[in-house]
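Table S2 (continued). Query chain:
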Amino acid sequence: MASFSVEEFIGNGVLNGLLQKLLDEGWDDVPTLKTMGSEDMDSLHMTQKQKDAIGIRSYLHDRGLMQYADKMEDCGRSLQELLNLSSMDLASQLEMKRGHIARFINKTRCDDSFKLHAIVARRSSSMMMHRDDSIPKSLGSNSSNNMKRSNVRSNATSDRSLKQSMVDMKIKDGYVFKGIVAGELAEPRACGCVNPSPISDQVAPYSAIENISVQKLTPEYKIGMEPLVKTKAPPLKASELWRDKPAVFLCLRRPGCIMCRAEAHQFYSRKTIFDALGVQLFAVLHEHIELEVNDFWPRYWGGVVLLDQGRDLYKALGGGKLLKEKFLSGFLLNPRALSNYKRAKTMKIEYNFKGKGETKGGLFIIGSGKSGIAYQFIERNFGDWAPLAEVIEICTQMQNQEESHRECVLH
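Corresponding output:
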């Protein structure tokens, strides 16, 4: 599937006037935009034509048929009406090629795997049990039934969006992982006068992270949680965090950095996918500046924020030593870092220069218990992001392994 920017996805039709509002509200990449539900659309005061356009473009994007988006939107029909057209009408009215017609009318094309349905089904079942238990007993049976029907509709919409988001992120056969573990090689800069620091090409051993001490600076965000940020939590052993569930640890250089904020936002906006895969998300900082934490959480990251004061996770990323680079050589003289900055800049994110930004970060995916580090990404150039599709693929593989292990135990 070709990669599309939000601007390319919404085109020049009825959605174009919403572009800035969509970006301001965090609908700033195509996979996130395609998860938009009816409540989200209503909150943006979208017209029925705009809602239809989102549905049409999402359907076409899933099938690699975006070249027909403008024509379909202009014809004024809904997606269902378009799907009810005959092959002859699609060819004559929309100039659609025969092979593309077959792809367009095949509604099951993107149901990639039985496993994806199973994940969504389990999540739906869990959500329904929780929501049904929360229905007040004092309500009459009609009110209760209405609430249940409403929950079913809401869950169905949410599950379809979740399923499609996971399909969008699925890595195709033949994909070459960027990582070591990960990250593109840093190149010499300033006409070869400045060489990047050497980086270990080995995944950190589990012993390097097992006994690290961290401190929770924020909880998982919920309404009313803000006062808890002021409560200082005691340090804890990091391995306690992944004892029962695998976890992703996103190690950031600075919470005020535009590139760090953009990466954190991109990851946390996919939280429903990680929840479905049974994976926790943690953001890690190496210094505690209270105002910076408050600006970062929950606006750019609504999950738990950890302080690694000893910078031990950062040392593990660097093979036992901190990966550091000066602002001049690591940013101003580095074309890749400047490109990363420009990419983040398009997201219209506020930023500042408070704190120490020379220590490079990265990302770990750590299995539950003592199963070890499944994936490691190193920020070789300032602003390198761990490829989200790779991270989700590794988490999916981990869940497959855990399910296979459970089945073996049961049998």
